Amino acid sequence: MIAASLYIVVCSARNHVRLRLRRLREPRYLVGAVAGAAYLYFSFFARLRTARAGQRRRGGAGVPIALASAMRSGAAGLVGLFLFAVTVVAWLLPFESGLLAFSDAEMQFLFPAPVSRRALLVHRMIRSQIGLLFGGAIIGLAMPTASGYARLRSAIAMWLLLSTGKVYFTGISLARAKLASSDAGARRAAWLPVGILAAASVVVGAALYRAFAGGAPESMRDLLERTTAAIGAGPAGVVLWPFTALARPIFAAGPREYLAALAGSALVLAATSAWVLQTDAALEDAAAAAAARRASAAPAQASAYRRSRAGLTLAISGRPETVFAWKAATQTLRGVDGRNIFRLAAIVVALAAAATSLGRAGGARVMAGAGAFALASAAFLILMAPQVLRVDMRDDLRHLEVLKTWPVRAAAIVRGQLLWPGAILTAGAWAALALAEILAGASLLARVGLAWRLSAGAAVAILAPALVFAQLTIHNAAALLFPAWVPLGNQRPRGLDAMGQRLILLGATWLVLIVSIIPGAIGGAIVWLALTPVAGPAAVVPAALACAAAVAAEVLVATEALGPAYERLDLTAVERAE
Amino acid sequence: MALAVDHFSRTYQAASGTFTAVDDLSFAVAGGEIVGLIGPNGAGKTTTLRSIAGILKPTSGVIGIDGHDIVADPIDAKRRLAFMPDEPHLFEYLTVAEHLRLVARLYAVDDFDRRAAALLDELELTGKERSLPGELSRGMRQKVVIACGLVRHATTLLFDEPLTGLDPIGIRRMRNTIAARAQQGAAILLSSHLLHLVQEVCSRVIIMDRGRKIADGTFDELASRADLAAAGSNLEQIFFRVTGHGA
């Protein structure tokens, strides 16, 4: 079976590369590839060369940056603690590693084949390696170090870490499925890791409590030092060893220490793999469930939506754009898993309660933290979420065969696709901004004067929809102009192998966004300069209005201009996408 | 003519170069006529139907729906058209009723409630209005696609393998449905590998092979041509003969 798996991996990778190279015959993909190569060069290799030159001048030894050196002693422990926390959260939230996401072809060819389910899992582990290696390489390249050797070390360490995570999350999926099993033995086996993790949580929690029971930390350094001391020794150190072992290679100083750390990390991966492979019975069930889904000929996404959620009623007449907003709203409504929101809320409440328990100062910190969180959320919703929320053309490309038959102007389709995600992100950003304003007294914003705080808040609220819609326009333009770069529907790139492509798309989006904002920014600056002597801080509000109006006009023009691109978009271009 | 295809060609860019899927195809379908489009795999049938529906852009030639060019005047052309593909493409997050309502909104169907109720009954979808596509069998999903096509006032109906996934009762009902729409004046172009269905339902047959039209006429006309059929041939025998696969 391993030979067959390797054959599949090699053939898939070879054909994948061939497909990519063949696409370079088309100018738009060639331009994309050149842009990607340039991005990689200027982001990593050029920086590496510059840093090396700087080190030569300073006589440096090519070690990781000073911060990493300073924190090296405790960093592995802190990262280990973080990994432990992620592990606990993973049991509460249904993370999926994708390792059991067998493709249709795998189910059709491998499930009826005379191979054990365990061999199938090994096959999936082998298949995931290309993505994991690529992910490790990308993270290695992104490491803030000037040394190629340090990057290679980091890439290997990250590969082991990512591999362990992938296998462990699969184990969680398998065990979770058995938690309520009617078979007492299977149920006990599934609850065992939960019990171990709960006990470990108590040990780690007690160590941290003892460390901070004497008083709240006075500074970030104090916080880190106390945490490191609490988890670095005693029972907590033992409990956290597997997690720390995974992080240790990243921070190892010399080759000998690195190799020793790498051995520990590999040991954890081996133990995790053994644990997952021994849950053969659960794997049988998971594989059988996948086969049953296939036999029912139901779409793979069927389980992702819930009929029980009442949809919105579509008016029988109106502008065509609103049809798309209704469609996307229904999709969002039926796709959101309320249980996840509840679990997430429970975690947030638990963390808040833990922080508040530290005393009155803790309560104030919670308020300050919530304010900072609200600000960060607003920034995320405005600047990053348009990349993530894909209920627009990026999702609807898979329905292009249907959309193309509709008697609707192409520009109206493009505009309609933007409406719902733009509206929901704007509403979210406004809510977050309002919360940040309410909590401003306790947060970092307390240092800012009231007039400035309110004016800036209003200005950001005005700019938010402009920025959100501008980004959505850019993303949808990319989907129309480069459909093969856009994953369709609930397709997700296997593992991390498309990380580089996403980085390129994100960079390009921001670049285009910056360029598209320049006219509005110039207009806004003129308004601000003109009104500041009269209105003071409040001048930023009309300035933001001017900027937002300019961006809105650009969005309207862009959606009209994208109409012909939609008309030209050939179904075969989308069908060839992965 | 409700549907007029004039010197239509469609090429694809393949790894080995340009591939011509349909080459200089011309035909017309009048209102009330049911035309069968048959041919072996790769003959260009689906490409033709997809191009008529506006999904694929013709490389050359003109496709008109009630006089409206599908490329130059796509909105008016598409408003008169209903395409029912062989593979049911549905939005997995919309229920059956919501699909029908969506189509009614897009095509400005005035008497939607009455038409929808009648169609759900005709296609045996009553009781499934609140089902998501993932909860339906393939045959049921195919019926939903057909219901979406029939709920509007289309003058030209395109069926690509309309009987795929249907049970025998569904097949019989679908045959009756297609015939009824033709009697109401719709122009129907139907692609199928079920030659007995084509012979039974269609008033005219177009046979395609390797992207070209190689025969066009009523079954009697084709059967009477000495170069196409021996005496007493049925459509299957004619098909094998003209496509060069022997009888």
Summarize the structure.
The complex is a heterodimer of chains A (578) and B (247). Chain A is mainly α.
Can you put this structure into words, describing what you see?
The complex is a heterodimer of chains A (578) and B (247). With 578 residues, chain A is an all-alpha fold. Chain A contains 23 helices and no strands. Chain A is globular, with a radius of gyration of 26 Å. The model of chain A is unreliable at 60-64 and 296-302 (pLDDT under 50). Chain B has helices at 45-52, 74-79, 96-106, 112-122, 138-150, 168-183, 195-201, 219-224, 235-242, and strands at 3-14, 17-29, 34-38, 60-65, 68-69, 81-84, 156-160, 187-191, 204-209, 212-217. In chain B, a hairpin with a 2-residue loop joins strand 1 and strand 2. The radius of gyration of chain B is 18 Å and the shape is globular. The mean pLDDT of chain B is 90. Chains A and B meet through helix 13 and helix 18 of A and helix 2 and helix 3 of B.
Which consecutive residue ranges of chain B, at least 5 long each, have pLDDT under 50?
none
Our Rg estimate of chain B from Cα atoms comes to 18 Å
Instruction: Please identify the oligomeric state.
Output: heterodimer
The total of helices of chain A stands at: 23
Helical fraction of chain B equals: 25-40%
Compute the number of strand runs of chain A: 0
Helix and strand succession of chain A?
A: HHHHHHHHHHHHHHHHHHHHHHH
Q: Percent of residues of chain B in beta strands?
A: 25-35%
Low-confidence runs of chain A: 60-64, 296-302
H and E string of chain B: EEEHEEHEHHHEHEHEEHH
